[in-house]
Structure formats: C-alpha cells, structure tokens
Amino acid sequence: MKGNKRILAALFGLGCMLTAWAADKDVPLIQNVMGYESQSLNGAWNYIVDVQEEGYYDYRMNPTRWGFFQNAKPQKPEDLIEYDFDKSPTMQIPSDWNTQDEKLFFYEGTVWFYKKFRVESLEFRDNRALLYFGAVNYDAHVYVNGQHVGHHIGGFTPFNYDVTDLLKDGENNVIVKVDNKRHAEDVPTQIFDWWNYGGITRDVKLVCVPAVYLEDYSLGLTPNPSPVSEGKNKSNPKTREISFSAKLNKAEAGQQVTLFIPELKIEKTFTTDAEGKVQGSTFNVQSKKLQLWSPENPKLYQVKISVGTNTVSDEIGFRTIETRDKQILLNGNPIFLKGISIHNEKPNGGGRANSVEDARTLLSWAKELGCNFVRLAHYPHHEEMVREAEKMGILVWSEIPVYWTIAWKNPKTYENAKNQLTDMIARDHNRANVIIWSIANETPHSPERDTFLGNLAQYARTLDNTRLISMAMEVTGASNYVNRLNDNMNKYVDVVSFNQYIGWYRDVNDAPKMKWEIPYNKPVIISEFGGGARYGLHGPKNQRWTEEFQENLYIENCAMLDKIEGLAGTTPWILKDFRSPRRVLPGVQDYYNRKGLFSDKGEKKKAFYVLKKWYEAK
Ligand code: GCB
After folding, report:
1. pLDDT at position 24, please?
2. What is the dotted CATH code of the domain comprising 2-210?
3. 224-319, what's its fold?
4. Distance 193 CA to ligand 1 centre (A)
5. How many angstroms separate the most distant Cα atoms in the chain?
6. Of 74, 194, 310, 523, which residue is least crowded by CB atoms under 10 Å?
7. Boundaries of CATH 2.60.120.260 in the chain?
8. Contacts of 476 (CB under 8 A, 6+ apart)
9. Taking the CB of residue 336, how many other CB atoms lie within 10 A of it?
10. Among positive and negative, which fits the CA dihedral 422, 428, 429, 435?
C-alpha cells in the first residue's frame, strides 16, 4: 500500500500510531479540514449542568481538587466523588442545549460535556491527531484524558488542538467545559438580538494528519491582473493569472508541494522556503480554457495539493471582485447584489443550524426569492452554509459579531474581535463566493470605536487583500426627511453599507419623502430594512404585525431604494423569523423576532412575493 493510502486506511480504524514529540497543543487552524479523513466525535455526549461551576472552583473560588475534567471514579467505598458523567444524561452533539433539554431553554451558564472514544493501535508511525471543533459557544476549556489542552473564546469559529501525545491505545475521553454567560467586554457584548444558543454547536472530529502537513494554502485569481497579462481588453484578457501560496505546519525548507488541477491540465511543483512556505507563486492560464465562477455558472475545479505522500482535495472557483466608483464588479462586470440576511438558525423552529441539510433548505429559500447574495449575519455561520452557497452560485457577506455597544477601550475585547476575524478568514479564504468581510454592525460613533474598527479593517486587509471590506453602518437624520451617512469608517471600507428601518422604527408614510445623502464615491449596500409580521395574521395595511403591514412596508421600501444613487445591493432583514429573548410580546412574538419573510416554520409571508418581484426586475 502506498504511504498515502496507508494513512487513510489507518484513519478508518482510527489508527494513528502517533509520534511522541512534545508539541504545542493549541495549533493554528488547519485549512480545509473537510479535505482530510477523520473520525467523527459527533453523537451522544453525557452532560452535567453546573450552575455554580462546582466542577471548576471550590468554595473559596480556587481551582477545586474535584475538577470534573478528571472524570474521577470512586476507588474505595469511602471515596467522595459527587459527580458521574457515565450516569448523567446525554444530548446529541452538535447541537445547542437550549433546544435539546426543555429545562435549558433560557439557560446561560456552564455545562460540562463528556465523550468516550476509541483509538486503535496501528502499525503506522509519523502521524498526528488534531482534535477539531467547528464551534463552541462561547467559552470552552477542553481536556483529553484529564489533561487540559486548551481554552477557546468565541462562539462561531473553529479551532483545533494537537492531542497526539495525550491519546492512548483503546479508550480515551474528551471533556469540554462550556460557558455561555454574557459579559460586557465580550464579542458579542452583553446584549444582542438573537438567541444565545449554548453548547458544542458544530462538528467535533479527530483529524489524522501526517507529521508535516499543509496548515494553510490560498488558491485563486490574482486580484488585479498585471498589464502584461491583460491583453488589450481589461475585462476580457487573453490570459488569467492564478496565485498560489502554501504554508506547512513546520518551518521546513526544501519540501515539495505539488498542485494539480486536472481539468485545466495543471501540475506544478513548488519548493518550500526556510519558513516552510510557498510564497507568492503565480502562473497563467489561457482565458478561454478557464471558466470563471459566477452566480450563473458556479464552476468549481477539483484541486489536489500534495506534500510528500499526503494529498488534500478541494474544490476551487476562480473569480475577481473589485469596486469601480459606485459599482461592484464581479469578473470585471457590474453586478447588483440581490440579497437577504440570514441567521444561522434551523429552518424549522429554532435551534442552531449545523448540517448540510439546514444549509440547503435556507439557501434554497433565498434562491426562490431570486437572490444571488446572502448576508450571513451577525457572526460566521457553519462552514456548510458557505460551501453550499458556493455550489449554488450564491455570493456571501461574512461577518464577525462586533455588534452594538462593544467595549471599545478594552484591549482584550479588541484581541478577541481580531481572533474571531482571523479565524473567519482562515476558514473561508478559499471560497470564491465570499466577497465581503464585514467587521461590525450598528456601532455607536466615538473616537475609540473608530480606532478599534479602523485597526480591524486594516488588519483584515493584511490577511486577505482579494476581497471587499464593509460593515453595517447607520444613517443619521440631517433634517426630518434627509438621511445622511456620515461615518469616519467610510475611509476604511470598500463598500458603504447601512441599516435603515423606515416603516418599522419610523413611519412608512415617510418613505416617498425620504432623501439620501451618501457623500462617498463607493458602492452602497442597504444591509438591513424590514418589519415584523406574524404569519397568518391578516388585517389592514396600517395594522402592525399583519402580513399586509409587512407587505406594504416592502412595497414602499423597494420604491424608495430605487432612488438611492449608487445602490449596489440590498440584504433585507430577514429570511426567517428567528429566536430572540428581546422579543417578548405574547401571542405575536413569543420570543421570536418576526421580521422574517418566512415564518419560523418555513411558511411564506406576503412580503416574500414583493421582494421576489422587485428582484426579478433587477
Ligand atoms: C438591527 C440589527 C438586527 C436586529 C434588527 C431588528 O438593526 O442589526 O440584529 O435584529 O435591527 O429586528 O431590530
């Protein structure tokens, strides 16, 4: 058996005989985790609800000697152990605890999770095992066989640990302490208009990688074609330049990294430098041979990248995205972004979305609406949302939860936001459909906020200069019927986006009178507008919560938006009713924000057809 196959075969039995050098456990996120064979740790996990963190602190708030992570068992009859994971209830992971256990619907606090798993001894050497979490909301301490392997903060981004040295032949266990209490200095902060779903909300897996593996790689069209490759016509060049870079997990020089794109007959081998990197490599492809990715033709190429005997597979689309004055150009051509905002919530009822099926259902509703674009609000969604959208030809705005009143002056808050931005970009930077990184939503103006967000925007560009930067801003009333966008952040963003709620937080009759002053020569996206309706509630159009009220609001808003100069797209609020603890009106909201075009059960409201018709005409 060839080395590569041997590694894969080993994985199926989860059979890495793992090398035992000391390694840092908290390792950078692996690019394209789906490209590797892995053992799923999804399924039934035992859990203990720990309201006072008894399993962590003693009665003086010092670390307790009875820490639950030890998974201790009485050895003698007189031993005092006041917990038992094996006798505790189970819940399916991935999930949120709020919708798994009725008693936990409103719970915010600590829950301990425990799972046993087996690793079989195999004859293979030189492999490493990464313990990967798609997301844990919000604060996670991870232990393997009683040893602390890491602490992760942030509820929506993936992370992984090298746990090789901690695994044993046969039975092992992983314990995760999850705490989703809200705090003013967190990201998001103490208040936000969505459900604070707690738990291990995305996939958990043990990924087997070789000792030297591809930690990261980037493959895509070079953003601004060089004049030589442009030919005479910029939007129709004779050749296209592809950029490739890669980074190994170790600073090993002289390793061969081979890139295959069979359909394009590309096979190129690069050699790593002293940092273990392939940096800034480019090569040309004849334009007529290369199908560009677009909503009309979401072409993805099968790609393989090999390091030694290990090969990782991916699907890559090639496209450019840029702005010219007030236009957004996809592959050099102006595009109007017909979008909708979406929360990462299951299509039927509440609960965190976490499957391919959830992604397909939500995105197929967006397609039915006529969308070519979605705003994945207000935090990174599960990876399948982005990947399925890419296959379906839907462009994506991806966002970090820097939302409302963040603690702008706190350096730890900034570090947290920066980490979440890093991980969002690290996970999805090879997805052709992601065109906008958004760094914030509706943030109150102040010099500290400008410094925080300005630094974040500049940092995002250093990580990825192939996409557009934006954020959802707010307009201020210059006079009664004049709305002006006046935000110092304009100089940092490529696209100026703002939320407006005429018809909901302001009278709908104002819509025809509204004037908009957007004094920047940049494309404009209306990142939110909308209003609430309870599905099935009918009445006159001026009666709040009826479908007719929402329908009329959409009619008036669409007519008004048509008059905004430089409008390059909209993402109305929102595809589906979503759970929010702030929405308490009995019989109407019942803890749902009702601004969906679909009800929480997936029924279409009348406004759906208004927006669909507007998009058909665009
Ligand atoms: C907003 C927020 C969004 C809320 C929405 C609303 O401006 O960005 O998160 O859910 O308004 O329904 O009020």
Report:
1. 63
2. 2.60.120.260
3. Immunoglobulin-like (2.60.40)
4. 7
5. 86
6. 74
7. 2-210
8. 483, 484, 485, 486
9. 16
10. negative
CA-to-CA dists, residue 31 to 27, 198, 212, 249, angstroms: 12, 26, 14, 11
SS3 410: coil
- Ligand 1 centre to CA of 472 (Å) is 11
Distance, in Å, from the CA atom of 106 to the CA atom of 104, rounded to the nearest integer, reads 6
Please report, as a single letter, which amino acid is at residue 594: R
Q: Classify the phi-psi angles of 170: left when phi > 0, otherwise alpha if psi is within -120 to 50, otherwise beta.
A: left
The domain 337-616 having CATH identifier 3.20.20.80: the answer here is yes
Tokens 């031993």 found at: 79
CATH 3.20.20.80 residue spans of the chain: 337-616
- Taking the centre of ligand 1 as the mean of its atom positions, its distance from the CA of residue 579, in whole angstroms, is 12
End-to-end CA distance of the chain: 56
Q: What letter does residue 33 receive in the DSSP assignment? A: G
Q: Mutation test of ligand 1: which of 376, 506, 528 has the most ligand atoms closer than 8 Å to its C-beta?
A: 528
Closest residue by CA, ligand 1 atom 7 = 499
Q: Is the CB of 528 under 6 A from ligand 1?
A: yes
> Residues 369-404: pLDDT tens digits?
999 999 999 999 999 999 999 999 999 999 999 999
Query: In this predicted structure, what is the pLDDT of residue 234?
Result: 58
Comparing CA positions, the residue from 234, 138, 149 lying closest to residue 189 is 138
Q: Summarize pLDDT for 343-367 with one digit per residue, the tens.
A: 999 998 889 999 999 999 999 999 9
Per-residue confidence (pLDDT) for residue 21, from 0 to 100: 39
Nearest to 440 by CA among 478, 465, 414, 463: 414
**All CATH 2.60.40.10 domain ranges in the chain, comma separated:** 224-319
In angstroms, what CA-CA distances link 393 with 179, 334, 387? 37, 16, 10
pLDDT of residue 14: 39
Residues of the chain with pLDDT under 50: 1-23, 122-125, 226-232
- What integer pLDDT is reported at residue 169 of this predicted model? 85
